[in-house]
Write a structure and sequence with these properties.
- It is a single chain.
- Helix content is 72%, strand content 2%.
- It has 2 domains: 100 residues, no CATH class; 155 residues, no CATH class.
- It has a two-stranded antiparallel ribbon.
- By secondary structure, the chain is an all-alpha fold.
- The protein has 12 helices and 2 strands; from the N terminus they run H-H-H-E-E-H-H-H-H-H-H-H-H-H.
- The radius of gyration is 21 Å and the shape is globular.
Length: 275
């Protein structure tokens, strides 16, 4: 453990890749045990959320014990402590998780999927892809607003942030930051987007045959309707890995349009109905 701690602390990404590999392996094993191997990515994400929660609990316990001065970053703050007193050494064994799970690596992974696209298939989506984007953005936002109203939220900007979160867990924080809403609402918007992503991963392979999700055009329409890049990619990977670049490409446009339209057009329209 001491050897691993030194290595993980010195080369943060190596430690994070090891953690990710173990979680992914276990996720696919769980899926295999219940006869749904194609849903391995969804189980891996669920398991990762559990690991993140446990990491946060450990970090807070270490802070209470005086080992840490802050536990605001959850599992990233967790350390492996050796010795005591003046000889105490602390190794931040999961510091690389903050890099691997950060925006830079996320955007790199999204953009890299574009290299697997055949431009001819992009043209085939045409109007259907544009309509799917518009419908996906509108209905996701509307569902989020309705859910927010049901749970007692009445502030326009808070409702817009929740609606943006249902679009994707990227658009939610962007919208929340634009309006300066509380961190609780921003966290709620992220949670809504994460639930949507996981649901897309689980549902996609189950309904793929019924909705004929077996070609690039259908994958692009699916990406436009769902919007979540991670949910779209994970769901399509469980159906056919060759479809992932097409769905992810349109889902990326979805996120970009959501960041542009939700804090402006959608929120302005919402203000006409809620004062």
């Amino acid at each position: 453990m001491a050897i691993f701690a030194k290595m993980a602390a010195g080369y943060g990404l190596v430690g994070s890749f090891i953690l990710t590999a173990v979680v992914t392996f276990l996720g696919y094993k769980v899926a295999e045990l219940i006869g749904q191997k194609r849903m391995g990515s969804a189980f891996a994400i669920l398991l990762a959320l559990v690991v993140a929660y446990i990491g946060g609990v450990i970090a807070h316990k270490q802070m209470d014990a005086g080992v840490l001065t802050s536990a605001s970053k959850g599992i990233t703050d967790v350390v492996y402590a050796v010795g005591s007193g003046d000889s105490l050494k602390k190794f931040a064994i999961f510091s690389g998780v903050g890099i691997l799970g950060g925006g830079m690596m996320r955007d790199f992974a999204i953009i890299s999927t574009a290299w697997g696209i055949d431009p001819k298939n992009l043209v085939k989506a045409g109007l259907a892809g544009i309509v799917a984007l518009a419908l996906g953005l509108f209905f996701s936002f509307a569902i989020g607003v309705v859910v927010g109203l049901i749970f007692g939220y009445r502030d326009v900007y808070e409702l817009a942030t929740i609606g943006a979160g249902v679009q994707t867990f990227v658009v939610g924080p962007v919208t929340g930051a634009a309006f300066g809403v509380s961190s609780d609402v921003v966290a709620l918007s992220i949670a809504a987007g994460a639930v949507k992503s996981i649901a897309a991963m689980i549902i996609a392979p189950l309904i793929a045959k019924k909705i004929k999700l077996d070609n690039p055009t259908a994958a692009m329409i699916f990406g436009g309707l769902i919007g979540s890049t991670s949910g779209t990619a994970g769901g399509l990977a469980a159906v056919d890995a060759k479809l992932v670049p097409y769905g992810a490409m349109v889902a990326t446009f979805y996120t970009g349009l959501g960041c542009l339209l939700t804090p402006t057009v959608f929120t302005a329209a919402l203000r006409l109905f809620i004062h």
